[in-house]
Amino acid sequence: MTGKFFLKLLGLVVLLLVLEAAAMELVFVPLIAGKLLERTPGETFLLLRNEILWSALIALAVVLPVAAWATHRVVTRLEKVVAFARRIAGGEWSARLTVAHRRDELSAMEVALNQTAEQLGQSFAEIESRRQELAAMLDSMQEAVVAVTAEGFVRWSNAVMQRIAGTQIRAGRPLVHFVRDPELLACVRGALDQREVRFGRASSLAPGRVFEINAVPLPSGGALAVLHDVTRIEVAEKSRRDFIANVSHELRTPLTSIQGYVETLIEDPHPNKATTREFLGVVLKNATRMNRLTEDLLALASVESPDYKLALQPARASALVEDAIESLGGIVVDSDVDIESSGAPDSLVMADPDAMNQVFGNLIENALKYGKTGKRIRVGARLLRSEDASEVEFTVEDFGPGIASEHLARIFERFYRVDKARSRESGGTGLGLAIVKHIVLAHGGRIWAESELGCGAQFHFTLPLAPGPNPPLAPSP
Q1: Nearest to residue 369, comparing CAs of 351, 345, 396?
Q2: Does this model's pTM top 0.90?
Q3: Which residue in 209, 353, 362, 471 has a CA-CA distance of 20 to 30 Å to 293?
Q4: CA 272 to CA 265: how far, in whole Å?
Q5: pLDDT tens figures, 9-29
């Protein structure tokens, strides 16, 4: 450290030397001059030696306290600088030095250190803000992300990855301690060792879920793995394949029958009129079945489409039930089955009348096919009120053989049949309940089935109440 500080120290030393010389000249020289005249040479030497020693001691007595005071001030200020540096090293960016109002090098250094600390604090605050923003963005992603070091230790993972792993993934520990999927570990290891992008597919990371893996090397020597959940895509693809297979199977059966009967008629040079009529009846039956299947496929495609629109309007629940019974009464009469109402409130619901006719039609027709032995179908509705919602529950009930419990969860799936042989004999396509489900869901309602073997089946669905006042429901008996 040079400059003003040392100039001040040098000036202090010079001043002390000048003071000592003045004291010698004004005090000791007169005393010595007077005494030298009365002394012998030996005594004069001793006197000079004593006077020099005393003058040196007096000079030291004056200089040492001043030097100690100046040194103490410098050391105290340097100790404050060291303590300040340690606080900054510990991450205490708000630490500042108290700057003395002097124009020396130490004061300039203190000002410079305060400015440096302020800039470092701002820089680290900005870095921390960006880190938190990045962490929030990665946590908000639907994809799972995990970063590892070159040694395979976890550097960071987002919240999605934590949920998938089912445990807290801790930074600084090997990835293999938290993830057991061999495909994911192989992709990460390949990105680390070969320094190239690796792709894979993990199916054992979480039960029932499939993930596409994209592992890329990082410039720092580690690797980053991104997992995209493709479970829905897999389910949709499987559903599409099953749908095509089911449609192909449903069409193949009547087409094979039609082809066989038509070929028989063509190859017979003298066809019997009664036989021809019988064969043509079978052809017509199968053609009707194919036409019904085509109509149901078009209806299902329509209700599943995002563009499917409903003409919702307030309608009384009792009117919907009465219209369903009246419009389908003719079909039921020919089957020797009675259809009756179990009552319905006058509450207003939001419904598309045409769509509701389709819902009741499919449910009543389904009850007619599979509950015919019960000789009775009951249609009704009741008002449901709770703290969460208000809705009307509609029910179509038959008194046939019922449905086993293992089928109830899947009964609304496309082409799902409880009894396939019996369904084909009755001309069912396996799409009616799927259509009903999508229409009810489009209304904002719910649908489910309840049944016990030998006790018939009940199909329930709900519709939300229309906004505005609704008449109260009479107490149930």
Answers
A1: 396
A2: no
A3: 353
A4: 9
A5: 666 666 666 666 666 556 555
